[in-house]
Amino acid sequence: MILSDKTLQAMLSAGTLTITPLIEDQIQPASVDIRLGNTFSVVEDSPSGMINMENEIRYKTITSESYILLPNQFVLATTMEYFDLPDDLTAFVEGRSSLGRMGLFIQNAGWVDPGFKGEITLELYNANRCAIELKAGRRIGQLVFAKKDAPTLHPYNGKYQGQKGATGSRVFLDNENQR
């Protein structure tokens, strides 16, 4: 069941859902608007010109109030908000239609697990022929929350728990856990 603004406001007031910082008009009828944070990360060039999933990927991270996303460029960004989801709530990351119409795609994996705590890393791609200026604090997307039928048996406690800032891929850790 997708949660309404009334339910979201009640959960925020009761402290069972935490979103900080949050201003009242971010709460929409069936979602919460998310704003762009001020850290951006791009994959550093590698000597081989190739990325593999067995080794840690190196990123160049900057803190800035704006970032110029060039045509056909990919950048990691973060939400301004920090989230703390209870064990019986999940969320979906969705882009804003008005930004998609400019050619800005939010390529997020799209899923926030129950029990997640942290800022959400967003994968942004400029499909336009023109550069797009990204500004911290601007509404970039929305979270749609859904209530689970019961609390999860194993709340999220993975490699991105507690993340702050634009956090690069940690897929190489999957390989270490499989050895």
UniProtKB/TrEMBL annotation:
It holds the Pfam family DCD. Bifunctional enzyme that catalyzes both the deamination of dCTP to dUTP and the hydrolysis of dUTP to dUMP without releasing the toxic dUTP intermediate. DCTP binds at residues 96-101, 113, 121-123, 142, 156, 159, 163. Pathway: Pyrimidine metabolism; dUMP biosynthesis; dUMP from dCTP: step 1/1. The record marks 110-111 as: Important for bifunctional activity. Its EC number is 3.5.4.30. Gene3D superfamilies: 2.70.40.10. The keyword Hydrolase applies. One of its GO terms (biological process) is dUTP biosynthetic process. HAMAP family: dCTP_deaminase. The active site is at 123 (proton donor/acceptor). GO terms for molecular function: dCTP deaminase (dUMP-forming) activity; dCTP deaminase activity; nucleotide binding. SUPFAM superfamilies: dUTPase-like. InterPro entries: dCTP_deaminase, dUTPase-like_sf, dUTPase_trimeric. Belongs to the dCTP deaminase family. Keywords: Hydrolase, Nucleotide metabolism, Nucleotide-binding. It catalyses: dCTP + 2 H2O = dUMP + NH4(+) + diphosphate. The lineage of its organism: Bacteria, Bacillati, Bacillota, Erysipelotrichia, Erysipelotrichales. It comes from Holdemania filiformis. The keyword Hydrolase applies. The gene is dcd. This is dCTP deaminase, dUMP-forming. Homotrimer.
